[in-house]
Design a protein that fits this description.
Rossmann fold; Immunoglobulin-like; Peptidase_S8_Ser-AS; globular; alpha/beta; 4-stranded antiparallel sheet
Length: 496
C-alpha cells in the first residue's frame, strides 16, 4: 500500500528580498504567482495534477510572499512551473523566557515502588493558596528526569511517582503576583507547605537598579514607535497600545491581545506607564507601542511567515525599532530578508540571543543585521531562594555582583547585554518576575528608544538604510562595558 503524501508548508518569496522589483518588466512567473491568492487550490491554476489539498494558506499585504501547503514530493514540479521564486520551508521560533522543563521520566529504582505525594503552595505571611503554579520535581537534574504538575485552586500539587525518592531540585513557577521558588536536596513530605513570596511592582530588580525611573524632563522615548513582535500584549492598565495586528494564519487580524504572558511582560519592560509604587513604569514609557501577535493559540511556536508579515506591517506602520524576544528555530532566508527589509527602510531589529546555556547565539539574533542582546544579572536584585539563584555563574564583571546569566547564549554575534534575571514587569492580571534573554532584549530596545528620541536629527532622517546605520552608530557611543568580555557582552550595556 502506498504511503500517504507527506505535506509541508512553504514560504514562497521573490528571488531577492521580500518584494518584487519595480525596475523590471513583469515576468510570466509573476503573472502566474499573482493569481495564487489565499484559499486557492494550486491544481486549479497550475499543471501537473497537484492534489486538491495543495493550497495557498496566506499572503502578505502586497502579495509578494505567500504561504502554501504542498506534498514534499510535488515541490520540484512546482518550482519548475514557477521558476525564479524561492521556496523556504516554514520553520518556528519560540519565546526566550527561561524556565526548566522535564525531559525524561524518573529512572526506575530497584525494589522501590513509586508513590504519590501532595504538597501545598501558600503565600508567605498571608497563607493564600497559590493556584496555577507549575511545579517541577527533578530526581536527576542533570538528565532533566522528574515529574511536573500544576497547583490547583487550593494550592495543592499532586505528584504521582516521586513521593519516596530524593528530589535533586524543586522549581516552582507561579503565574502572577509571586516570586518563583527553588530548593535543593530534599524529600517531599505529604501535605508539606511551601511559602511563596509576594512580588510588588516597585521591587528593586536589576532593571530598576541599572535604569531607575527617568526624571520628568527626560524624553523617555517620545516620538519613537516601538514594535513588539511576540505573543500579543494586554490588556493591562499600565499599557497603552497604539496599534498592531495578528499575523497568525487563520486568526483574527485585529486580535493581538496576549495569548500567554510573555508579550505583555516584554511590552511592560519597554513601555509600562504606571506610577510606582502601586504600578509599573517601563524604561521608555512615552514610546508609541505597537504589538504584533505571531504566536497562535494552538501552537507554542511562531512561524517565519507570521514573523515576516509582522515585520512588513511594522515597517508600514512607521515603527522605528522592532523587539523580537524569540528564537531557537533553524535559520532561514525568508526571515533574514525580512530583517534586511526593515534595515533598508530605516528600522532596527533587536533580537534575544537565546537561552541554551552559553551555546552559540540562536537565530534570528545570529543574523548580521539584527542586534543580538544577551542577559546579565546582579546579586541582591532577586530573593535568594528563587529559581534565579542557579543562574548566578561566572564570568563576573568589574563589579563582582554583576554576572552573565547562566542561560544566556554567547558568541561573536552578541551586540549588547542587558539585565535579564528576575525582571519584574506586567502580565495579564498583575505583575510577575521573569527571566531570559527575552527580558534583556526589550531593556536594550527601550533604552535605544530613549536615546533615539533625544536625537531628532537621526529620528527625522529619511527611512533608508542610512537611517538604520545612524541609529546603530548612535547606540555604539552610548555603551559601557561591564567587564565580561565581548563574547558575553558584545560592546557592552546601553546607558542614557
Amino acid at each position: 500500500m502506498d504511503k500517504p503524501p507527506r505535506y509541508q508548508n512553504y514560504v514562497i518569496l521573490p528571488a531577492i528580498g521580500v518584494h518584487f522589483s519595480n525596475n523590471h518588466p513583469v515576468s510570466e512567473t509573476q503573472v502566474q504567482y499573482a493569481r495564487l491568492t489565499p484559499n486557492t487550490h494550486l491544481n486549479t491554476l497550475l499543471d501537473g495534477g497537484l492534489p486538491d489539498q495543495a493550497v495557498v494558506l496566506d499572503s502578505t499585504e502586497r502579495g509578494d510572499i505567500k504561504l502554501i501547503r504542498l506534498p514534499e514530493s510535488e515541490l520540484p514540479d512546482l518550482r519548475a512551473q514557477l521558476p525564479g521564486l524561492r521556496f523556504v520551508p516554514e520553520v518556528f521560533y519560540y519565546p526566550q523566557r527561561w524556565q526548566h522543563e522535564v525531559r525524561n521520566k524518573p529512572a526506575p529504582l530497584a525494589n522501590q515502588v513509586r508513590t504519590a505525594v501532595r504538597i501545598v503552595l501558600r503565600a508567605a505571611k498571608t497563607n493564600v493558596p497559590i493556584a496555577g503554579a507549575t511545579v517541577i520535581a527533578f530526581t536527576n537534574f542533570d538528565e532533566r528526569e522528574g515529574e511536573q504538575a500544576v497547583s490547583n485552586a487550593q494550592g495543592v500539587v499532586r505528584f504521582n511517582s516521586v513521593g519516596n525518592r530524593p528530589i535533586d531540585q524543586l522549581f516552582v513557577y507561579p503565574k502572577v503576583g509571586y516570586w518563583s521558588f527553588w530548593k535543593q536536596n530534599l524529600k517531599l513530605t505529604n501535605n508539606e507547605v511551601f511559602p511563596i513570596q509576594l512580588v510588588t511592582p516597585d521591587y528593586t530588580d536589576a532593571k530598576t537598579y541599572f535604569y531607575p525611573p527617568a526624571p520628568a524632563g527626560d524624553p523617555n522615548g517620545r516620538q519613537v514607535k516601538v514594535a513588539v513582535i511576540d505573543t500579543g500584549a494586554g490588556p493591562h492598565p499600565d499599557l497603552i497600545i497604539k496599534g498592531g495586528a495578528c499575523t497568525v494564519t487563520g486568526d483574527d487580524p485585529d486580535d493581538y491581545a496576549d495569548i500567554d504572558e510573555h508579550g505583555t511582560h516584554v511590552s511592560g519592560i519597554i513601555a509600562g506607564q504606571g506610577t510606582p509604587p502601586d504600578s509599573l513604569r517601563g524604561v521608555a514609557p512615552n514610546v508609541s507601542l505597537y504589538v504584533y501577535r505571531v504566536f497562535g493559540r494552538s501552537s507554542q511556536g511562531a512561524s517565519n511567515f507570521a514573523i515576516i508579515k509582522a515585520i512588513e506591517q511594522a515597517v508600514a506602520d512607521g515603527c522605528d525599532l522592532i523587539n523580537m524576544s524569540l528564537g531557537g528555530g533553524a535559520s532561514d532566508d525568508a526571515t533574514e530578508d525580512a530583517i534586511s527589509y526593515a534595515h533598508a527602510n530605516g528600522v532596527v531589529c533587536f533580537v534575544a540571543t537565546g537561552n541554551d546555556g552559553r551555546q552559540p547565539v540562536s537565530f534570528p539574533a545570529s543574523y548580521s543585521l539584527a542586534l543580538a542582546v544577551g542577559a546579565m544579572g546582579r546579586k541582591g536584585t532577586f530573593p535568594a531562594n528563587t529559581t534565579d539563584a542557579p543562574n548566578v555563574e561566572a564570568p563576573f564583571g568589574t563589579d563582582r555582583k554583576n554576572f552573565v546569566a547562566a542561560f544566556s547564549n554567547i558568541g561573536p554575534e552578541v551586540d549588547f547585554i542587558a539585565p535579564g534575571v528576575g525582571i519584574v514587569s506586567t502580565v495579564p492580571g498583575g505583575y510577575a518576575p521573569l527571566s531570559g534573554t527575552s527580558m534583556a532584549c526589550p531593556l536594550a530596545t527601550g533604552i535605544a528608544a530613549r536615546l533615539l528620541s533625544a536625537d531628532p536629527d537621526i529620528l527625522n532622517m529619511p527611512r533608508t538604510a542610512a537611517r538604520a546605520e545612524a541609529i546603530v552608530r548612535l547606540l555604539a557611543t552610548k555603551v559601557k562595558t561591564l567587564g565580561f568580555g565581548p563574547t558575553f557582552e558584545g560592546i557592552g550595556m546601553l546607558f542614557v
